[in-house]
Design a protein that fits this description.
The chain is of the alpha/beta class. It has 9 helices and 12 strands. Strands 5-4-3-2-1-10-11-12 form an 8-stranded mixed sheet, with helices on both faces. Helix 2 runs parallel beside helix 9, helix 4 crosses helix 5 and helix 6 crosses helix 7. The radius of gyration is 18 Å and the shape is globular. The two termini are about 15 Å apart.
C-alpha cells in the first residue's frame, strides 16, 4: 500500500507539488546535506547520511531531471559522507559543494572547481589565537572556507554570540563573509550561496518545477531563490527538515518534516507516487 503524500500548508507549495508530480522528468530536487540528509552531530567529521537516504535518492534520481545536494562542505567530503559514489540509479545526482563553487557529478565521478580565495588561508592562520580559551574549534573546508563551531563549548550559545563580531571583523579584513548557522560561524568568500547555486542549476536544466529541502540559516537563500522562481512561473515546494532551532526556515516552509528521517520518508513517498 502506498503512503499518502503530506499536504503543503500553502497554495504555492501545493502548486509546486502538483507540478512536480505532473512532470517529474523536468523537476529538480535540491537538498541540503547536514541536518537534511544527515543528522546533526557534535563532530561534523562524524556526520553520515541517514541509513535509508541513498536508497531513496537512487530510486528518485532516475525519475527526475536532477537531484542536487547543495552544501557548504567540500563536494568530495559530502560525496564520501553521503556514500553517493558508484551507486546504481544515482547517475542524475550532482553535488554542489562550497555553496556551488565545486561541482561533482555522479555520472563522471569528477570534481570541478576554481582556485581557492586567498583570504581563507589568511583567516585560518589568524583563528587559533582569536579562539584560544573559548572552547570553540575549527573545521577545515578544503581551503575554500573555514568554520568555527561552538557546540562543544561550555556555554555554546554565549560563545557563539561573543565570537560573532570579532569573526565578522576578521572575515571582512580578508574579503570574506560570515555565514551563521546552528552553533557554527562559517567564514567564506562572498558571491556564492545556496540560492545562487540552485538558480543556476534550475536554469541550466530548464526545469519546470523545483523542490528544495533544508534545515539551517544557510538554506534561506535557496528558499528565496525558490520564491523568485515561483514569481516567474516555475512552481516550487519548500521543505524544512524540522528543527526548533531555526524558526526563520520553518516559518517560510510549505512543508515541515521531522529531520532527516522525515526528509527520507518524503522522498520515498514521492518515488511511490511517481510510479
Amino acid at each position: 500500500m502506498s503512503m499518502s503524500l503530506p499536504t503543503p500548508s500553502t497554495a504555492a507549495g501545493r502548486d509546486g507539488l502538483r507540478a512536480l508530480l505532473a512532470d517529474p522528468g523536468r523537476a529538480v530536487i535540491g537538498l541540503d546535506f547536514d541536518g537534511t540528509l544527515a543528522p546533526i552531530v557534535a563532530d561534523p567529521e562524524q556526520a553520515r547520511a541517514h541509513p535509508e537516504a541513498v536508497a531513496a535518492l537512487a530510486a528518485l534520481a532516475p525519475k527526475v531531471a536532477s537531484v542536487a545536494v547543495i552544501t557548504g562542505r567540500p563536494a568530495e567530503v559530502a560525496v564520501r559522507y553521503g556514500g553517493f559514489a558508484d551507486v546504481p540509479g544515482l547517475e542524475h545526482l550532482t553535488v554542489l559543494g562550497h555553496y556551488g563553487a565545486e561541482r561533482w557529478d555522479a555520472a563522471t565521478g569528477k570534481v570541478t572547481a576554481p582556485e581557492p580565495h586567498p583570504g581563507v588561508a589568511a583567516v585560518r592562520a589568524a583563528l587559533p589565537s582569536l579562539l584560544d580559551g573559548t572552547g570553540a574549534w575549527i573545521e577545515e573546508k578544503g581551503g575554500r572556507a573555514v568554520a568555527v563551531h561552538t557546540r562543544r563549548a561550555p556555554d555554546p550559545q554565549a560563545t557563539f554570540d561573543t565570537l560573532r563580531a570579532p569573526l565578522t571583523a576578521l572575515a571582512t579584513e580578508h574579503g570574506l563573509i560570515v555565514e551563521p548557522g546552528r552553533l557554527v560561524l562559517e567564514l567564506r568568500p562572498p558571491g556564492m550561496d545556496k540560492g545562487v547555486a540552485l538558480l543556476a542549476h534550475v536554469h541550466d536544466l530548464s526545469a519546470a518545477s523545483v523542490l528544495y529541502a533544508g534545515d539551517d540559516l544557510g538554506d534561506l537563500p535557496a528558499f528565496t531563490a525558490v520564491d523568485a522562481l515561483r514569481t516567474t512561473g516555475t512552481p516550487g515546494l519548500l521543505v524544512c527538515s524540522g528543527s526548533d532551532e531555526v524558526p526563520e526556515l520553518s516559518n517560510r516552509a510549505d512543508l515541515v518534516v521531522k529531520g532527516p528521517e522525515g526528509v527520507v520518508a518524503l522522498l520515498s513517498t514521492l518515488v511511490e507516487h511517481l510510479g
